[in-house]
Write a structure and sequence with these properties.
- The chain is an all-alpha fold and 99 residues long.
- The protein contains three helices and no strands.
- The termini are far apart.
- 80% of the residues lie in helices and 0% in strands.
Length: 99
């Protein structure tokens, strides 16, 4: 090794594991591929496959975003249905008590 030679540091790539783990609580069927792809990023970086690591990180981010979108949308729909059902129950109770 030559004096003064600095080994090149590999570029840091965000593996999106945190977002994948959060996504598993919202909609797990789409979060599983996100976690699988996120777990591929660091080994690919260690092997020197930067393009493969970047592609795995992009796939992980894509699946995580879809899991978050579907999960949050599902919870909003359930919340709206519960609120409307409760409101309908209150209104029908009010009309039946006045007769």
């Amino acid at each position: 090794m030559q004096p003064g030679y600095q080994p090149q540091q590999p570029p840091q790539i965000n593996n999106n594991m945190a977002m994948s783990i959060v996504a598993i609580f919202l909609f797990w069927p789409l979060a599983i591929p996100a976690i699988i792809n996120a777990s591929k990023v660091n080994p690919l970086l260690q092997q020197g496959d930067y393009a493969g690591a970047q592609a795995a990180a992009a796939e992980s981010k894509k699946w995580s975003k879809w899991a978050l979108i579907v999960g949050i949308g599902w919870y909003v729909i359930v919340l709206v249905c519960c609120l409307l059902g409760g409101l309908a129950g209150l209104l029908s109770a009010d009309t039946s008590s006045t007769n």
